[in-house]
Design brief:
Layout (H helix, E strand, L loop, with lengths): L1 H11 L6 E2 L11 H17 L13 H11 L5 H14 L1 H4 L7 H9 L7 H11 L2 E6 L6 E4 L17 E6 L2
Helix pairs in contact: 3-4, 4-7
């Protein structure tokens, strides 16, 4: 029901249409004070579309916890999600390697470690691995809604995904 309401609202507000996700090499991570300032616009956007914020433990595993919450209805499965994402990155290196700003083996080793922050590359790998469309509601001024779809397929319920086909996450720029 929440997902349908969000889709209907997004269709009404053409300036909020999704943009395609284009992986790119990471820049710098935003300063904490900037992230705090950006929380208010994100909260307003979530409220506008009938979505609720769920606080996820900020231990460096937050992206994987958020994905686990959306995919399996429990952030406790974050280790499984990280393992599957790293497996995807390892098995399909050619899809992701060009977007990694360091030697690929080092990146894989880094992403295996609990507490290592996920990035746009791990989000794409998660979408690909789980056959899920990941919808980001962000605090970005220009693009507050980004869809990350599995490469080479329409987003459908994957065999590893027990619930709906679109998963929503919030992101503070």
């Amino acid at each position: 029901m929440r997902i349908q309401k969000l889709r209907e609202n997004l269709e009404k507000d053409s300036h909020l249409n999704s943009i395609p996700h284009t992986p790119r090499v990471n820049g710098e991570i935003p300063d904490v004070s900037d992230a705090t300032l950006d929380h208010e616009p994100l909260s307003e956007r979530l409220t506008t579309y009938g979505l609720a914020e769920l606080q996820i433990e900020g231990d460096g595993n937050c992206q994987f916890r958020a994905l686990a919450d959306q995919l399996f209805r429990s952030p406790d499965y974050h280790k499984h999600v990280r393992k599957e994402v790293v497996k995807q990155l390892k098995n399909f290196r050619k899809l992701y390697e060009g977007y990694v700003p360091m030697p690929y083996k080092n990146y894989l080793k880094q992403m295996k470690r609990s507490g290592e922050w996920g990035d746009h590359i791990t989000l794409q790998a998660a979408a690909d691995r789980f056959g899920a469309k990941i919808c980001l509601v962000t605090s970005f001024r220009d693009t507050c809604y980004i869809e990350i779809v599995p490469k080479g397929q329409n987003p459908t319920r994957g065999s590893h995904v027990p619930t709906a086909e679109a998963y929503f996450m919030g992101f503070i720029s």
